[in-house]
Amino acid sequence: MKEILTKLLVHIGLLTTILASSQLMAQESNRLSASETEWLTQHNGAIRLAPDPKFAPFEYFDDQGAYAGMGAEYIRLIEDKTGLQFSIVKMADWESIVEAAKQQEVDVFGVAAITEQRQQYMAFTTPYLTTRGVIITRVGVTREMSLDDLKGMKLTLVKDYVWDDFISLDYPDMQIDYVSDPLVGMRKVSFGVSDAMVLSMATASYYIEEEGFTNLKVAGETDYAVQFSIAVRKDWPELVSIINKGIEQISEQEREAISKRWLFHQYKAAYWSKELIYGILLVLAGVLGVLVIMFIFNKRLNAVVKEKTKALKEEQNQLLELNEKLVAARDKATESERLTKAFLTNISHEVRTPMNSIIGFAQLIEMDQVSKADTLHYASLMIKGGKQLLSILDSIIQLSKMESGVVKPVNEPFDVLNLLRETHELMLPLAKKAGLSFQLQLNTPSQHQRINSDRVLLQQVLNNLISNAIKYTPEGKVQLIGECSGQTLKIVVKDTGIGVDEADKEAIFKPFRQEKHRLYIESGAGLGLATVKKIVEVMNGRVWLEANQPKGTIFYVELPVVRVGEESH
């Protein structure tokens, strides 16, 4: 018994030694040689692998653009076991990939069968996948088919697939319809454009299930069973050797796991009974009826919504317009109230001052206790006060006419340069009396310039601007500058007076805005510049002012005019 146990232990040890030795020999045989290691160092990461984009389940690109399929999983295992790194190249179809490989623009096919044509430009590794070619037809074909039965029919093949290489050689008279990928071909068969198609069982099963080709079936098998290898450009034998060592290291368990994930059972076509067809048609009719009702209802609803939206928009626009009118009316009422208060405040003061002086001097004369000389002096002051009252009333009436639109320009031909000269002569004594220099400057080469405009209104603008300039200039000079060029009359009144603050440049053209100047004038209602602005606006012109340097004010007036002889007819 002891001897038997001893012998058994010796045999077990010997067997263990043999197994260990075989594993070591296998590991040693799969180890890369020095030349292979050197080749891998030079080329790794730059090896271009171009997968067939629509050769599922063997290889394809998924919805995210990633390389997928059985071949993709084998490639990743080979990379892990050898250290290889492939660069995945995306191309349109298998035919383009084959042409690129012939030109050595592609280095590796991930899944390819060995054919005589391909061996001219590619070398092949040990096969790692096996498949059989099957014939795909519509479900109406009731008998089992072979390639011989397809003579006289239209057979669809993917250009440059292995089935093309086989059938084009063995059946030269076959009517072949070439397509770029399996999915296009299966659709042709499904739609009746083609009679049949030859594909691998795995590819046919995959697309029938994934794409839902319920009217297609596997009608028979071909005599072609092929093994898929990895194809490598012929001038890289080192890469073939490296990949073979990687394939040898893939275990049976890893192979079975890949097959279970990707290979499907043979597809059985659905049974199209009359009851099934009638049921589908009934459901489709019901769905169509619901869609029609929804379409009609939706169209009517849209029409109602559109009509209501239009009505609401019109009401909204009316409300906005009414609101704008109310805001404008409120602003106008507010401004009117302000002007009324300002008018009453100023007029009560401006009228009261000369009126009190007239009454006071009249009472002194009435007392008969003054000399004749004083009586004449008081009478002179009373006349001056009366003229002042008359001037205020004239200004109020003139501004009121302007505001109400009563005053309209009356265009008539006149010499505008002569008007400027006459105005200068008229105002010159007033300037001299104030101790000021009053200059006239006409920026035009001609001595006369006849235009069509309102001479009276223009004269009033000139009088107001020049008299204001003289009033508010304690010392220095006043200038009147005129220029008539093209269709525009430009007038400038410049002084060296007290000037106008920047903040008052706009407000000074509003009625009753002369409080700042009371230190420099005896009296005034503050209506002169407001009247100027209204006259200029009535004549379609504009007026503005700027500060003079180093002191004083410059008033600008621009008016559109028509020269005599240039009117429209």
UniProtKB/TrEMBL annotation:
Organism in which the protein naturally occurs: Carboxylicivirga mesophila
E.C. number(s) listed in UniProt: 2.7.13.3
PROSITE patterns: HIS_KIN
InterPro entries: HATPase_C_sf, HATPase_dom, His_kinase_dom, HisK_dim/P_dom, HisK_dim/P_sf, Sensor_HK_Regulatory, Sig_transdc_His_kin-like_C, Solute-binding_3/MltF_N
Name of the protein described by the UniProt record: histidine kinase
Reaction it catalyzes: ATP + protein L-histidine = ADP + protein N-phospho-L-histidine
Keyword Signal among record annotations: yes
Entry annotated with the keyword Membrane: yes
Taxonomy, superkingdom: Bacteria
Taxonomic classification: Bacteria, Pseudomonadati, Bacteroidota, Bacteroidia, Marinilabiliales
